[in-house]
Structure formats: C-alpha cells, structure tokens
Amino acid sequence: MAACTSTTQRPRRSRGAGRWLAFAALIASLLVLLPPALGGGSATAGVASVQLPESPGDLLSALSEKPVLMAVAAVAGGLCLFCCIACVPMLCILLRYWRALFFFWTGGLYADAGPKLGLSKYSRAHLYSLASVPWLMTQPHYRTGTFQEDMLTNLRNVVLPTGLFGVPLSVCARSRVHAVLSVLVLLPSVAFVGAWWRKWHGLEDSAAECFGRSLLAPTDWFQLWRLNCRLASMTSLATQSKDFELEDKWVFIQNCLEQKIPVTPVMDWPVTLVAKDCLEEGGMGIHVLKNVLHGGRWILQEKLDNCDAVKSLLPSEAPLSTMRVLTGSHGALADLGVASVARSKAHTLATVWRAGRQGASTDHSCIMVNVPNCKSSDVLGRASSSAHWYARGWKSLGMPVSTKDGSNTAHPDTGLVLEGKRLPGASEAAELCERAHDMLMPGVPLAGWDVAFCPSKTGGAEPELILLEANLSCNFFRGDIDWTSYADLLDEHFLAIDAWRRSRR
After folding, report:
1. Number of C-beta neighbours around residue 444 at 10 A
2. What global pTM score does this model have?
C-alpha cells in the first residue's frame, strides 16, 4: 500500500511542478516579448530613453505612460503576490525583500539598512547592490563601455534553467525597465518556483527557508557571481584604480613577468600566424593572427599540459584542467576614503578544481571539484556541475532545474571517485594567488585566479604552478566559501561605496 501511495503521489507533484515552471516561463516570456518601443529601439536606446525612478511614485508614473508595460507588471506582480499568499511565510519574506529594495531606491542609507530592516551584513550588501543595478547600468565599466553592455555580453550564454527551454538571461539587461521588473517580479517568481521544486525533489527541508535564502541571502553560484560583478564594477567606478586593467590578459602577463610571478609563456615568433582549415576553400577557414608582441592583439602561446598527477584523475584527451582560487583583499578601502582600516593581506575565500571532460577543448566543460581545506590540505572534496545553466534553447529539455552543491563524487566520464583524492600543489597554489593579489592588484576586492598544474621542468614529482589569468568579476564555481570573511569584505566595501555615491550628489 505504501508503495502504491508513493507512485500515485509522484504524478501530481510532477504536474504541479510543471504548472509552476510554466508560470516562470510565462513571466520570462512577457519580459522577452515586450515591444522594443517600451525601452527604445535597441538596448542602448532603451537606457537613454528610460529614466531610473527616484521614488515609488515616479515608478508608477513611468509605468502609467506605457499601458502595455503597466499591464504586464500588474499581472506578473499580482500572480507573484497570489502565489506567495498561498504560503504566508513566503509572503512575509517577499514583502521584506520589496521593502529593502524600495528603502534603497528612496534614498535609505546603507548603514541604516541593518538596524532598520533587520538585515545581516551579507543580506544588506546583496540587496543594496541589487537595488543599484538600474543606476549602475549606465555607468562606465572597466572592461566594456557600460555595465549594461557587460551584462548583455556575459549573460547571453547563461539561461534560466527550466528543464524545457533555456531563455538567455541577457533579456533582463535590455533596458533599465527590464532590470527593475526582473528584480521586482522575475527573481521572486523564480525563487518561488525553485523553492518548491527543490522541496518536492528532496533538496530542501523547507520551501519557505529556500525562498527566503534566495531573495535575502543567496548562496547559489549565479547570484554570487552577479554580486561579485557589481562589487567589482562599483569599486572600479569609485576608485578609478589602474589595478582593474589587469583584466586585460596581455597587461596581466606583462605585470606577472615584471614581478617574477609564474605565468604562461608568450611566443615572440612568429610575427603573424596564419591558420587554415584543411578542407575549406574560397577564402574561408583562414585565420590571420598578429602577435601582440609585434603590435597585434593575439597572445600566441604553446599549449600547456597537465602534470602526471592531474592526468591520473582525468579521462584521456582531457583539456588543461585548472584550479580556480578566489582571493579577497581590503586594499581598495583606503582608496575609498576609509582611513581607519589597516591594510591587510589578501586571503583565500574559496578553491575549486575544474576537472575537464573527455574531448573538450577547455576546462569550461568540466565537473567542479571542491577543495575544502586548500590552505592546509591538497585533498579533494565533492563535485558539482552547472551545465544546465548554459543549455540555451531546446538544449535545456530534460536537464535538471536545480541541483545540490556537492551532489557528485565521481568523474562522469571515468567513474573515478575524486572525493578524497589528492591534488598535489593545491595549497601552494592558494599561497601563490594570495601573493599575486597583494603584488599585482591590491585595489581589487575579489580576484579569481586560474592556476595550471604543469609538469616540472626539473623532473621533480611536484607540479609547476603557472597562472593563466585573473578574473575580477569572478565566480565561486560552487565551492565552499569562507562566509564570514566574504560578508565582512562585502559590507565594508559597500558601506564606503554608498558614502562615495552620496558625496557626488
């Protein structure tokens, strides 16, 4: 009887999940299909024609001038509110989330958000930066024209996982109106659906707790990545530090060579490299790459190989598999006018080894293996995957909506259990990245370093560690995080950034 009861309940859960997923897809589709005239004929025109509301009244006034947009916002907001009424704890969380956004949008002080709204350091940092997105979209960005352009570029291959059809999240950056609606409506809707989906699939004990965490103190890799991007952009904007120029791979290599930090070697020859496809004709399949050392923009390098210890953990024909070391620094606070903070050295916040997939050209196709105690141990932990976040269009069909961090123990191509295995040189890699952060970019709050484990040139057993690049709008890759240090770093920087923004008014 128990087995019979179990099998009869599962279809109902599946249908319920399908209805909620359809609701999320509807909200996303409404945002995608808004006529271009609502925000201008293009993304750039949309920013120019849509002004950020300074108050809730201004927001309603702006929406009233666009009846279609007003209707979409009303329907979407009503559906979101109706769904949350079904669970009173979720409604309270949603109202608290909206209250925090409007607190910042109506000029509330960052320093007051904690005591007035009952927010932790991490929560107020997250919500303050999220509320700043519409303003930030028109501001200059350290690697592209504006923050909006950077969002459009980096979100075009990231989708909202639905298990059905992957809609690129760049739609949320089409205009400031899209951004405001995404923050007010889409994010709570997705959090609501995701919370119940994870509850129904045994990934959460409480849907309400999951919903609250997603809105007020997210721990998922995507929201953490976007939070880190906002921190980098706002810090760069406020300090105008040249340290952010090291996002440029050539500038990074030059600075590493000057500081004698091990970095990927660059080929001085040839001046120009011509690569041709074996079978293409008619002038197609030809790539002409002029060496950056001779006035071009292409860095020519020999392919690096994994050391034997790393190869033993991977399938055959696996790509160079690097470790991401994410370090934090408080060096920018002095440039932000916080004179009372003593300069401290960079410290490691998270470490993840990307075990490449068989036949892949780079380790972007990988399983992400946590290195939980990297400062003191080289032992690998459990692994995760984010492949479902990059499945555009119908490639999402059948893929998971959500997964649990550390849900894998073995490499999917070999079945080799990676948990408990040793990655030689992992702790030394963390120390190398901390030293590089202090020497190269102390004015950057967060840096994600890619470290290769190559064969030793001297024939020794330990690998040669080589830095490939540093990512300043960085990703934790679902690794374990030093949450206390991370929250403190965010809170101190956004407190200083809020003071800087007010000083400009």
Report:
1. 28
2. 0.83
